Amino acid sequence: MLVVAGVLGGAAWGGWLAKSRGGLKKDMAQYAAGFAILWGIIGLIATIVIERMAA
């Protein structure tokens, strides 16, 4: 669940950031993809850590 939230939140944040910096649609797509990947990986690591601590 954290992975999905990280991907969606990262994509929204990346798109917003590129738009606020005056980027074109391609820039917004690239930022959204990059931030989605980054926050998805962070969410995955957090999920693994939480599961290991719970078990």
From TrEMBL:
User: Which positions, given as ranges, span the membrane?
Assistant: 30-50
In terms of superkingdom, the source organism counts as Bacteria
Q: Which keywords does the record carry?
A: Membrane, Transmembrane, Transmembrane helix
- Its name, as the record gives it, is Apolipoprotein acyltransferase
Organism, per UniProt?
A: Dinoroseobacter shibae (strain DSM 16493 / NCIMB 14021 / DFL 12)
